[in-house]
Specification:
alpha+beta, 3 helices, elongated, 3-stranded antiparallel β-sheet, about 100 residues
């Protein structure tokens, strides 16, 4: 499978073209949308979009690991992880 990607600029261009908007207006909409997701997830709130999926934060416990260069045991500090889980509709569309 070829790795394709879409940049933020391309997303803004699609939004502008599809909705007959100026690119600056589409950029404001996209930026506001993305900033809202970041702010809510940073506040550890769950963000859910029906038919798309949800973003949430998971607590990862402290654990023991190894330095890959030296093999020395190290402690990996507890931290938070951003999790995205796609909806069943999204999964079915991909498969």
């Amino acid at each position: 499978m070829e790795q394709a990607r879409i940049t933020k600029k391309e997303l803004i261009e699609r939004i502008a073209a599809k909705n007959d908007l100026a690119k600056s207006v589409a950029a404001n909409i996209a930026n506001d949308f993305l900033n809202a997701i970041v702010e809510e997830v940073a506040a550890e709130k769950r963000i859910e979009f029906n038919g798309f999926g949800f973003f949430t934060v998971a607590d990862i416990a402290e654990r023991e690991g190894r330095n890959p260069r030296t093999g020395e045991k190290i402690i990996i500090a507890a931290h938070k992880k951003i999790v995205f889980k796609p909806s069943k509709t999204f999964k079915n569309k991909v498969n």
